[in-house]
Each structure stands twice: as C-alpha cells, then as structure tokens.
Amino acid sequence: MLCKKLFVSLILTLLVTTTVAAESLKIGLNYPQTGRYKDQGLQQRLGAFLAVDEINRAGGIMGRDVKLVIRNTSGEPDKGAKNTAELIDQEGAQMVFGGVSSAVAISSGRAARERDRIYFGTLTYSNATTGAAGHDHMFREPYNAWMAAKALSQYLNSQHADDEYFYITADYTWGWSVEESVRKFTNTDDTDAHQGVKTPFPRALITDFRKALEEAEKSGAKVLMMVLFGDDMVRALNVAYEMGLTKKMQVVIPNLTLGMARQVGPTIMEGIIGGAPWVWSAPYQYDYPRGKEFVEAFSSRYEMRPSTAAASAYSIVYQYKDAVERAGTTNTGRVIRALEGHRYSFLKDEQYWREFDHQNVQTVYVVRVKPRNEIMADEYSSDYFEIIDSMPGDEAAQTREEWEARRREAGQPLSLQ
Predict the structure, then answer these.
(1) Within its chain, how far is the Cα of 286 from the centroid?
(2) Is the peptide bond before 202 cis (omega within 30 degrees of 0)?
(3) Which residues pair with 351 in a beta bridge?
(4) Residue 53 to residue 290: CA distance in whole angstroms
(5) What is the DSSP string of 150-202?
(6) Is the pTM for the entire model greater than 0.70?
(7) In sequence order, which residues have a C-beta less than 8 Å from that of residue 266 and are 6 or more positions away?
(8) CA dihedral sign of residues 348, 350, 353, 357
(9) Could you tell me the domains of the chain?
(10) pLDDT tens, residue by residue, 66-84
C-alpha cells in the first residue's frame, strides 16, 4: 500500500513538474491592426512572429516556449492602455511591446509600470517617450525625434542652408517633438520666416491636407517639411504630387518607413528625403551578417522586404530573451537592470540601452528615395532607399544635461522612477 502511495505521489510530482516546465512564457504585442497606422502595425506583427518562431525552434527562453499574445490599439491611447492592462492582468504577459503613435506608447507604458512590467516602445518617435514622460519601466528601441532631426539637419544644413522651410505637422506629441527638434537644428525657429500649419490628429481629412499644402505653395518655401506619418503622410503626399509641389520643393519626411513609401509608390516618392533608424539595405551596404539573415528570413517567409517597424519588433523580442537569460529570471526589476547599459550588435552596428533614460542609442541614417527603375529592379520591388548620410548614436542623442533640462521643464524627477 505504501509503495502504491509513493508511486502515485511520484507520478503526480512528475506531472506537476512537466506542466511547470512546459508552461509558455507570454509576451504581449499591442499594435494597430486598424486605423491610419495599420501598415506599420502589421510590420510589427510580422517581425515579432518571425522572432518568436525562431526562438522557439532554438529552445525558447530558458527552456520555455514563447507565446505572443496580441491586441489591437486602433491607434487610440486609451485603448492601448486598456489592452496593456488586459495583456498583463488577464493573459499573464511578462513583457508588453508595440505602439505606433507615441501617445499610444506613452499611455500603454504607464499601464505597464502600474503592473510592474516592462514596456518596449516599438515605433514611437516623440521625445517625451523616454524624456518628459519616461519612467523606469519604459524602453524605446528606435531613435527619437531629437536624434532624427539632428542627423537630418546635418545633411539639410549642407544642402539647404539658406532656403526657406514650410512645416506641415500632425497636431499631437510626436508631431510637436519633431517640428521643434528640426527647427532647432536647422536654425528655422523663426516662424515668420519659416511658416507652418498644424493638421488635425487623428482624424485629418483630405481637405485639411489640401488647405495646408496650398499655404505651403503660397509661402514660396524651397523645403517642405511634412511631419506626418502612416496613412496621413500617404494621403498628403498624393495631394502634393497632384499640385506639382514635389517638383517645386524638396520634400522631407523626417520619419520615413518602407511601408509608407510602398503605399505611395516609386513615381511620387522619387527624390524625397527622410530619416530612419534602419532600412533593409543597410546590412548589405555595411556588411552586417545578422541583419542580412533577418532580411532574407523575413523576405522568404512573407514575400516582402521588412520595414523599420518589423526590424524593431524583431529586435525587441531577441533583446528581451537576451536580458532574461542574462538575468536568469523574468523578474521585472532584474531584467531592467540587465538591460540598462547593455551594448550589443544585432541587425546593424553597435547599439546600447542608455541607463539614465532607457533610450536605445544607435546610428541614424538619412535616406533619399531612388529612381523608379532602381526600386523596381529589386526582387520585391522595394529597393527604395539610398543612404546619403549618417550620424553615430552618441552624437545624435541628447546629452544627459539636455535630457535633464527637459525633465525639469516638465516638473519630472531627474532620474527614472
């Protein structure tokens, strides 16, 4: 009888142990499946699923399979925060990432902090994300508006130093950050000499863009700075082309993605300049082997080239895996410490998670859209970008003193909490 009880106890122990060992590690992806940023959202999803599948084939994270749980933000900040709460409270996600709108990323990050979980911003360029609104549970993988503007301005100041600018800006935190930063570094702070208009966000109409573009045309400016993103940029640029402005002015889109370029098409996009933290051709131009592996795996699986959003999501999943394994646990506090100051090379040259603000510091690229025949020569008709300038991450990023000045202005403590 005693042997039988011991046998039953042993079986139950084995069953419990097996169940625990097999329990998946859940991570949450919070992205727009619908709305004006849906294309950038889809790229995040594709990059994330590729990373998860690769990691699981290689044995998971500390022996646990990774399960990706998703939610649709629709580009709405309140919905992003609600989704984050659900992903953690109901699904048990150990980490959440995503966001295309900076307002969504910021609200989602706050919800994650309240639940002691890390939130990785995947496509959020507002300075506030790791600046005035930054906290110890938020990490931003791509660059911010300051970094993009500083690199872009290096090029623009050499080519358009004496030209008049006109700004068309989405009226929310990301747009404000970008315009402010570009004006600062291009010496176009004088709004009488370098005019601009704000367009409604998130529900701008074609008539709003047409009116703004008519103002740009009347100004006589030589540089048209279109601080718009996603479908808003696509619609506005189509109108600018119809009006002939793309031939009269140098159009600059500070945060330019492959998805946006593909939506507009090579004919209209030719010659447009923008900033990017990563483009799929960079690993080939600079010989980054791991970056090439990602491009080829993504292209083969999805029959398209990856955009910045896909690369960011893919990198985040791998960076979380690396941090958990170095920490030896999924405990949030210990994973945060493993990330802070960590340097690595993955899809490009060296990057690192800066300790004092959790900004990912990395090389910034300035790109120009190639002629149509070069774009279409690619197997997937997507060789849009020629890298025409770059800036090292430490040169592009805010200094600690500059970051602290912004925190003081916002009434925030001078260390992340």
Answers:
(1) 22
(2) yes
(3) 344
(4) 16
(5) HHHHHHHHHHSTT--EEEEEESSHHHHHHHHHHHHHHT---TTTS-EEEE-SS
(6) yes
(7) 369, 370, 371, 372, 375, 376, 381, 384
(8) negative
(9) 25-143+287-362 (3.40.50.2300), 146-276+364-396 (3.40.50.2300)
(10) 999 999 999 899 999 999 9
